[in-house]
Amino acid sequence: MSALLLDIQPGDEVIIPSYTFVTSASAFVLRGATIRFADSYPLHPNMDPEHVASLITERTKAILVMHYAGVACDMDKIMDLATQHGIAIIEDAAQCIDSYYKQKPLGSIGQLASFSFHDTKNIISGEGGLLVVNDQELTAKSEILWEKGTNRSAFMRGEISKYSWVDLGSSFLPSEMTAAFLWTQLEKLEYIQSARVYRWNRYLSGLQGLHERGAIYIPSIPDYATNNGHTFYFLCRSETERGQLIDHLKSNHISAYFHYLGLHKSPYFLKHNPLESLPNAESIEGRLLRLPLYVELSDQDQDRVIQSVESFYTKHESIAS
Ligand SMILES: *Cc1c(COP(=O)(O)O)cnc(C)c1O
Q: Which helix or strand (DSSP H or E) is residue 76 part of?
């Protein structure tokens, strides 16, 4: 919907982080856009505004910002670029429910933002999402677009006597069953968020020692950002070591996962584009590991995860020395 609302056309360029989910890019590729991939920071998955600046051309129509793990990107820097060059900002706020940048809710900063209610997120309806329109000029158009390109919403409000096909559109509406499921989740938002943040902080204090010893690296939350407990992750020293840690955890019946594969090296992108190097995204792709975090996780099970990560490094270090 964002790509349609911004009238993205073939030849338009859209800047997107490489370290993100495929739909951040495919929404724009479906409209014929050329994708320019931005790199992450060396030690954080979020996009580096300086690299974004270097990718801007006369054809840049939009920048998509993805706030990894619900932790805000440096939005002042990105919004400055947008104003300077007249570029639209879309927030991929899929992981960002109830998280903030300098007291502003994520998803309220760019012209458009999308949230996900997929069952991997904090608030879920199995499948589903939310488009936030922060630009009054796009509000009427968005209503038409999600009603299959008709002005049925205006008709339902009694503003017109019949509705017809007036623009591009599709069926973007959720079903009432989905909405009902989601509603109860939203009613419990505070409980869910505080349970997740509690788990997150418990991981942080439990693994702080390993971070201080340099065995793992836990990125800190920048002063301008909040943490909504979406994901607890850290960076291993190497891809090999991460693989060994995953195996060790698996042998203790603990599932820990890495995350995105950089989109700039994906088979689909490489079919149409030359291979380029984005060293930070590639490094994070190989080193990032996520630990189990869900509302029903008990203190006891979480302690077992923490102890299992610790025992891996203790064993590792005694072999090394
Ligand atoms: C989950 C996720 C998506 C996809 O959300 P859907 O609801 O499955 O469409 C997109 N981007 C990011 C960053 C995500 O985490």
A: helix 75-85
Looking at ligand 1, which atom is closest to the CA of residue 68? 13
In whole angstroms, what is the distance from residue 141 CA to residue 150 CA?
10
Residues in the chain: 321
Quote the ligand 1 centre to 94 CA distance (angstroms).
5
CB 79 within 8 A of CB 52: no
User: What is each CA distance from 237 to 43, 217, 243, 283, in whole angstroms?
Assistant: 11, 8, 11, 10
- Say what the pLDDT of residue 124 is: 96
pLDDT tens by residue, 246-267: 999 999 999 999 999 999 999 9
What mean pLDDT value characterizes the chain? 96
111 Cβ inside 6 Å of ligand 1: no
Name the one residue in this structure whose structure tokens are 């070591």.
Answer: 241
Please tell me whether residue 165 adopts helix, strand or coil conformation.
strand
Q: Ligand 1 pocket, 259 CB below 6 A?
A: no
Considering only CA atoms, which residue is closest to atom 8 of ligand 1? 118
What does pTM read for this prediction?
0.96
Q: What is the pLDDT of residue 318?
A: 74
Q: Is 118 in the pocket of ligand 1 (CB under 6 A)?
A: yes
